[in-house]
Design a protein that fits this description.
Heat Shock Protein 90; six-stranded mixed sheet; about 20% strand; Schlafen_AlbA_2_dom; RecG_C_sf
């Protein structure tokens, strides 16, 4: 950390990755707990590396400076390693600024989220400029992004296995090249459990769909997972329609609806279809309060879904990536086999293809809103392409 970099940080406002503190004291156990909490909160928040700057008033940004004993960096490293699980990688620097000593704690970007406070078992993150306890779905989302939890294979113990469409399951097994011989569908349960489509209870007799099993093979998943549908809004007439069903049939319905709505002959409908398919397979299904939305406004078509880009990705790298990381890999690989239209079989970056498809229409924008955990694709068009 140098003076120039510190000046750039001081010019910014507090955020999920930047915190200003007037003093640095680690004499009491409470002060040590607060440091560990602030470090894990920044590490757990989306984005790159973060900073806690000591010796600066958080409101006025007036430089106050701190008095730091020689052992302070070693003590900070010790606190973080002993109180955070897994430990967070940090670095502490002292910078002379306006004839005062300012402490800068750099919290490096982590791919081991979520980091937990050991003394109370809590998980923290930043909401704007404040540190807060992470909600259940936020913790689950971090576990999934780190590969520690697979959302799709979680059992839905309140849902009957009869909610699965057996014809779709058989079709999937046959297209997968699995040789199946059975006299009763129930004889396939061990195989389906191994594939993550269903989950058995401890008694070995009762089975239930997994979340992924219901989304891909369910008769009407939205009866039990209401946030998993797709809403299309026609802003011109202030009307909309909500689409239900398993993922492939739901995508078919949305495409048919938009084909009847959008009348401009040379409009790149395939690119819209790809954007919607991407939104379904990459969305954050732990975000229960929001669905995928296609909104047609005066000047553009906006496709939004809960789920900012995961830790390993950013928009710039995704535009060049031929083998991108996928949040819901279980869903992706089932749809890869099952989808008759091969929407998920295309290689390379879908974002790049979408962008290239609209060269003659205007600029395509990709918005990754980490604060709201939202990703948007904004396509040129709007009311002029309707009817």
């Amino acid at each position: 950390m140098n003076k120039q970099k510190l000046a750039a940080l001081l010019a910014k406002n507090e955020s999920t990755k930047l915190d200003f503190k007037e003093s640095l004291s680690l004499k009491t156990d409470w002060e040590k707990k607060e440091l560990a909490k602030d470090v894990t909160a920044i590490a757990n928040s989306k984005g790159g590396r973060g900073y806690i700057i000591f010796g600066v008033q958080d409101k006025t940004k007036k430089i106050i400076g701190i008095n730091v004993p020689e052992y302070q960096e070693e003590q900070i490293q010790q606190i973080v390693s002993q109180r955070c699980d897994p430990p967070v990688t940090v670095k502490f620097d002292l910078v002379n600024y306006d004839d005062k000593t300012v402490g800068v704690l750099t919290i490096y970007k982590s791919n081991q989220k979520p980091h937990q406070i050991l003394h109370n078992g809590s998980f923290y993150l930043r909401r704007g400029s404040t540190t807060d306890i992470a909600r259940r779905e936020e913790i689950a989302g971090m576990l999934q992004d780190s590969g520690l939890l697979q959302y799709e294979t979680i059992a839905l113990n309140n849902v009957s296995i009869d909610q699965l469409d057996r014809d779709i399951i058989i079709k999937y097994l046959e297209k997968s090249g699995l040789k199946i011989e059975y006299d009763r569908f129930e004889n396939l349960y061990p195989l389906l459990e191994g594939l993550g489509i269903i989950s058995g209870e401890e008694d070995g007799e009762s089975y239930h769909p997994t979340i992924g099993g219901l989304l891909v093979f369910g008769n009407r998943p939205q009866q039990f997972l209401p946030h998993t549908g797709i809403k299309v809004v026609d802003g011109k007439n202030n009307t909309g329609q909500y689409f239900y069903g398993d993922i492939t049939s739901m995508l078919d319905k949305v495409e048919d609806y938009l084909a009847n709505l959008i009348k401009k002959q040379d409009y790149p409908m395939a690119a819209i279809a790809e954007a919607i398919a991407n939104s379904v397979v990459h969305r954050d299904y732990f975000s229960y309060g929001r669905e995928t939305v296609v909104y047609i406004s005066k000047n553009h078509i906006e496709i939004s879904n809960p789920g900012a880009l995961y830790n390993k990705s950013d928009i710039h790298s995704l535009l060049k990536e031929n083998n991108p990381y996928r949040r819901n890999s279980w869903l992706y690989h089932r749809l890869l086999v099952l989808d008759e239209k091969n929407r998920f079989l295309k290689t390379g970056s879908g974002l790049r293809r979408i962008k290239d498809s609209f060269v003659d229409y205007g600029k395509v924008r990709f918005i990754n809103n980490e604060k709201r955990n939202m990703f948007k694709v904004i396509l040129p068009g709007g009311f002029s392409i309707l009817y």
